[in-house]
Amino acid sequence: MPKTRNRYGVAIAGVILHLMIGSVYAWSVFTKPISSYTGWKETSVSFAFSLAIFCLGMSAAFMGRLVEKFGPTVTGTISSICYGSGIALTGLAIQSHQLWLLYVAYGVIGGLGLGYVTPVSTIVRWFPDKRGLATGLAIMGFGFAAMLTGPIAQSLMANVGVVNTFYILGGFYFVVMLVAAQFIKKPRSHELPPAIAKNAERISLTDCELTANQALRTRTFAFLWIMFFINITTGIGLVSAASPMAQDITTMTASAAAVMVGIIGLFNGFGRLAWATLSDFIGRPLTYSLIFVLDIVMLFVLLLFKTPFIFALALCLLMSCYGAGFSVIPAYLGDVFGTKELGAIHGYILTAWAIAGMVGPLLLSYTHQVLHNYYVTLIVFIIIDALAMIVSLLIQRDFVTHRQTKLVIK
Question: Which residue, among 260, 261, 295, has the nearest Cα to 275 in the 3D structure?
Answer without folding.
Answer: 295
